[in-house]
Amino acid sequence: MQINISNIPEKGLNLRFSKSKEWFHRFLPTGDDSGFCVQKIEVSCFVEKVLKNVSIKGKIKAGIELECCRCLEEFNFPAEIEFKYVLSPADDLKEDELELTYKDLEYNYYEGDVIDLGQIIVEQVVLRVPVKPLCNDSCRGLCPVCGVNLNIEKCDHKTQQISSPFAALKNFKANKER
Ligand SMILES: [Zn+2]
Ligand SMILES: [Zn+2]
After folding, report:
1. Do 159 and 115 share a structural domain?
2. For tag attachment on the chain, is the N or C end more exposed, with fewer CB atoms within 10 Å?
3. In a domain, 146, yes or no
4. pTM of the model
5. What number is the average pLDDT over the span 28-54?
6. How far is the CA of 145 from the centre of ligand 2 (A)?
7. Does the structure show a pLDDT above 90 at 104?
8. Which ranges in the chain belong to alpha helices (H)?
9. Which ligand has the shortest distance to the CA of 134?
10. What is the DSSP letter of 172?
11. 135 in a domain, yes or no?
């Protein structure tokens, strides 16, 4: 998924394509078990040359399969991501400038005359994966005693409200005072 900059016409380039799960996961380091699986990805974007810079604006639709951090059930998380990048030629930037701009996600650089659009798309999707995925905000999780999924079944164990951030805070304070 590379764009040769000399092939971008004056009026810009509209791109629309979809990518498979296999394509996506090839970008991730092998043995990566971050616990998500990306299904099909759809991308539409507009690539334009602005002087020496290249601007890329677009939208990504991706179905991400995640495991809920409370009940451990798998669920589908549809992500819609809008992104915008401005890439400058690396040759024009001094080294300290390179470092500075590289930190800013929306401002980047390219080397040679090729832009790797795939890398950009994968980066955007990975950033969108929630750190603590929840199948539902009100997911009740698993009973810590018998392990039943409390969204589906009931059990007689009294569960502590470990899911509330306030309860967690209380515990934290209590521990500190001890
Ligand atoms: Zn859940
Ligand atoms: Zn139980």
Report:
1. no
2. C
3. yes
4. 0.73
5. 85
6. 5
7. no
8. 21-26, 95-103, 117-128, 165-177
9. 1
10. H
11. no
